[in-house]
Amino acid sequence: MERESSTPYEPKRNCEIRVFESSDEISTDLAEYISEISEISVKERGYFAIALSGGPLVSFLGKLCEAPYNKTLDWSKWYIFWSDERAVAKNHAESNYKLTKEGFIAKVPIPHGHVYSINDNATVEDAATDYEFMIRQLVKVRTIGVSERNDCPKFDLILLAMGADGHVASLFPNHPAMELKDDWVTYITDSPQPPPERITFTLPVINSASNIAIVSTGDDKANAVHLAVSDTTEGPDAPTSLPARMVQPTDGNLVWFLDKEAASFLESMNDDASYEHREY
């Protein structure tokens, strides 16, 4: 589509943005996107390692539970992880595991042993340590790939949602967890959104993925989307520590799935070859 060139900022490089009329259309395209990555990963590596966020993101996975994907995807090769999790029991209403199991996992034939939830009987610190150890073991046997740049796990796909404050996973603006370089999984005890205790992937792990998708809907996300995908570094609205803005794959692809409301501040972005903006 044509884009206006009169704008005070430039888009972030290597960023594809897909804009949809409705959440249902996002779900349809997201299912095809995940299906394609799954098939390529299984063909090339023999596995498909995907890390999910919880919350409203799960509602966008429904199309994968329907034809043709429920019959055509090689679910036996899927390995499910969480990019972040609340430190609550697995049957707790706020558990990302519970939400994902009920909304997605229980509806497709993914082997139970391929679903890696956190240890909900441990302290949040021990749960983060255990989760990182488990991921390290799976990297050793290449169930999860490994980045040649930094030896981080290289998930085939990390699927994220973004909050109105620009947080992704459980990485919140100006939080010390944003600065971690060597840890793969960390924990926080002071989340600005309840519950306060959570585990989360660190930015180096997120940015090492082969593919990253961020789903964001609603006009309350419009400003954060604008700041996250822009190269703006000046002015009163310039981001200082916006987690979604820090999602920049080192050797992979980033795709945003937005509805019209979330994308409403992007209409005047520059026409840039590295910024692919498609409307559906």
UniProtKB/TrEMBL annotation:
EC number assigned by the record: 3.1.1.31
Lineage, top ranks: Eukaryota, Viridiplantae, Streptophyta, Embryophyta, Tracheophyta
Name under which the protein is recorded: Probable 6-phosphogluconolactonase
Family listed: Belongs to the glucosamine/galactosamine-6-phosphate isomerase family. 6-phosphogluconolactonase subfamily.
GO biological process: carbohydrate metabolic process; pentose-phosphate shunt
Keywords: Hydrolase
Domain Glucosamine/galactosamine-6-phosphate isomerase, chain residue ranges per copy: 22-256
Pathway listed: Carbohydrate degradation; pentose phosphate pathway; D-ribulose 5-phosphate from D-glucose 6-phosphate (oxidative stage): step 2/3
Entries under PANTHER family matching the protein: 6-PHOSPHOGLUCONOLACTONASE, 6-PHOSPHOGLUCONOLACTONASE 2-RELATED
Enzyme class: hydrolase
Catalysed transformations (reactions): 6-phospho-D-glucono-1,5-lactone + H2O = 6-phospho-D-gluconate + H(+)
Molecular function GO labels: 6-phosphogluconolactonase activity
Function field: Hydrolysis of 6-phosphogluconolactone to 6-phosphogluconate.
InterPro entries assigned to the protein according to its UniProt record, in alphabetical order: 6-phosphogluconolactonase_DevB, 6PGL, Glc/Gal-6P_isomerase, NagB/RpiA_transferase-like
Superkingdom to which the source organism belongs: Eukaryota
Signal peptide interval: none
Organism expressing this protein natively: Miscanthus lutarioriparius
